Amino acid sequence: MEKLIEWFKQNVKILIIGGLALCLGGGFYLVTQPKNPPETFSPSDITAVSTDKKAVSTDSHQGSDFSKEKASEKIEVDLKGAVKMPRVYTMPKDSRVDELIQMAGGFTSEADQNTVNLAAKLKDESVIYVAKKEEHAPSVAQTAEITTPNASSALTENSATQKVNINTADLTGLQTLSGVGAKKAQDIIDYRTQHGPFQKVEDLGNVKGFGDKTIEKLKENITVD
């Protein structure tokens, strides 16, 4: 023990100097090391983040409006008669009859294609009826001649006296009758499809919307022969 104390006394200066050197070296190391400052946000950064969120919200809203607008551009059309797949079709707005016929797989072999205006634009809730050849419905060209203001007076007088056959006339032909619109014309077609041809003019009273007064008014302009 005495030897240890003696050794400590002899070497105390060396120990003190070594300790000081160690402390100075550690302090110098800490001072010279680069410090990473805490991450901060400037006002411009916060504004940019807020703007981005608004842009995302606006884009989402505009996308929703665009989807609603696209949905409103669709129309529904009831296709009947001599086509391969007659039914109600959902079509883009401003579609043509030709596109509708193609959607239905085309005409059947019985279709009278001359009675259909393929270039006509479709309207929402409208009915397109393709007549059969055996129905002898007026062609598109004949209908156009009758309704054109520049047609000759002789042709107009002749067509005015011509009776409409309610057993064979198509949707367009039936609508030439006074007071018969698309709905009533379709009701006539639906009735004769379900119950067969009319046996006499008075049988038209079996169709909804045709009373005795209406039939009396139409009597001179319709036939079942």
How does this model look, in words?
The strands form 2 sheets. A 3-stranded mixed sheet has the order 2-1-3. It contains 8 helices and 5 strands; from the N terminus they run H-H-E-E-H-E-H-H-E-H-H-H-E. It has helices at 2-32, 43-72, 97-103, 140-147, 153-161, 171-174, 182-195, 212-218; strands at 74-81, 88-92, 127-130, 164-165, 222-223. Strand 1 and strand 2 (88-92) form a beta hairpin. The longest helix is centred in the first third of the chain and has 31 residues, at 2-32. The chain is 49% helix and 9% strand. With 225 residues, it is mostly helical. The protein is rod-shaped, with a radius of gyration of 45 Å.
Q: Tell me the span between the first and last alpha carbons.
A: 145 Å
**Taking all residues together, what is the mean pLDDT?**
76
Tally of contiguous helical segments: 8
Q: Assign a percent range to the helix content.
A: 40-55%
Shape: rod-shaped
Strand fraction: 5-15%
Largest sheet report = 3 strands, mixed
Strand order in the largest sheet: 2-1-3
Radius of gyration, rounded? 45 Å
Number of β-strand runs: 5
Structural class: mainly alpha
- Regions with little confidence, pLDDT below 50 for 5+ residues: 145-161
The succession of helices and strands, N to C, reads HHEEHEHHEHHHE
